[in-house]
Amino acid sequence: MLESLPELRESLAGAVIGPDDAEYDAARVCFNALVDRRPAVIARCVRADDVAAAFDFARAAGLEVAVRGGGHNPAGHCVLDDGLVIDLSLLRAVEVDADARVARAGGGATWLDFDTATQAHGLVTPGGVIGSTGVGGLTLGGGIGHLTGQHGLTCDNLIGGELVTPDGSVVKVETDEDLLWALRGGGGNFGVATRLDFRLHPLDGLVGGKLTYRGADVREALQRFREVVARSPRQLSCQAGLSLDDALTPTLWIAPCYTGSRADPDELRMLRAAPGLVEDGIGPRSYFEQQNLFDSGYGVDRNYWKGHFVRELPDELIDELLARLGALGRPPGGILIESLHGAPKDVDGSTAVVGFRRAAFNVSAMATWVDERFDDEHIQWARDTAAAIEPWSFSGGGYVNYMQADEPIERVRAGFGADAFERLQALKRRYDPENVLHRNQNIPPT
Ligand SMILES: Cc1cc2nc3c(=O)[nH]c(=O)nc-3n(C[C@H](O)[C@H](O)[C@H](O)COP(=O)(O)OP(=O)(O)OC[C@H]3O[C@@H](n4cnc5c(N)ncnc54)[C@H](O)[C@@H]3O)c2cc1C
Question: For the whole model, what pTM was predicted?
Fold first, then answer.
């Protein structure tokens, strides 16, 4: 196979990287350090024809295919042993039509690329909270972030694009409503998106940042978070996270993002007044500053995530979460609690396959660690924590964007619902009948 790499190099306008190339090791790294795989070839595509040529090459050489956007998926779906990676990291331009309020993003654009292009016009679409996450992967799985309450899930703002299917056909997404429905949450199952088009919204500034609480009072502060999001106006998104500090003291952060016109909204005052507050980092910010709240090394930590969308966040669940936080006897990583109040509930559910918009929160055990000797313990912690959350589960399904590769298909199906899953399978038969694109939260054709 390696002998035929020059042929692939000839047919691609982008770059081809093999194991003997200097960039190989850097090009196969993904966000999750738990994943260490060696592809046979990495095809860096810069246009739809390149993607079609890469699919042809993989078919002729009998190679399995993976698709790489921003490389953030915790399952490590973007890289594989001995196969071909369709790498979109050179396809990152974002064009903005400010009058039409539309952005067209290359299939490998990151949120930093996207926000840089759109904020130059004072416009946004609700995206991910870390700049290096791929627009493609995040959108195709749903998309929850700092503007979810205001403008819905990222996929609710997807209005079209261009897809290359494994037989090399180029499909205009906006002309096929079924396909657009499937791409709003159904993942990378139907083709490689070389372009994704989004609706944009004006945004000048916001009040945001982070509040940090510590000690026994985090229980009450989390109850306050629950009260605030329940009464929240559309102009306030709000997420929270639990962790342990090095002294094993519980810590809670709450990250509100308020885009309304009130100078000091009640909801922010309620959060500030909750007990246990040790740091108040809330104030006027630019959208860029808000998008920089959370930092994250790439390919540094080992990660194993598992969770549930939940119907509610009762005191009993809060107590379970606090108990699980201490269960490992050292800082386990964290528990992320994303509120789905506001705009996701306003959207006509029939326009997108995403099945979780009616849930109250997405609660995820995010085990992170560095030392590989602790792999089993941290993985077990995340699994046990998800099991503890399960009695409050909205549908039994999890968030495809946070799933590891070992999730059973039942969890993927439950996330969409049985009828929607069947409709996705029918579309899979139309666009990828051989299931070439199976390194994802897979929707098998049959
Ligand atoms: C640090 C970090 C922060 C995150 N923050 C958020 C957040 O704020 N909100 C949120 O909702 N999620 C978030 N996520 C989860 C993230 O949305 C998913 O992991 C998503 O899959 C990442 O997309 P990617 O393109 O970076 O990943 P990759 O690993 O490159 O891609 C994942 C899969 O998506 C598909 N894919 C990607 N691009 C394309 C494309 N152009 N065409 C077809 N298929 C494609 C492929 O199946 C690919 O295997 C975060 C993850 C991490 C690690």
Answer: 0.97
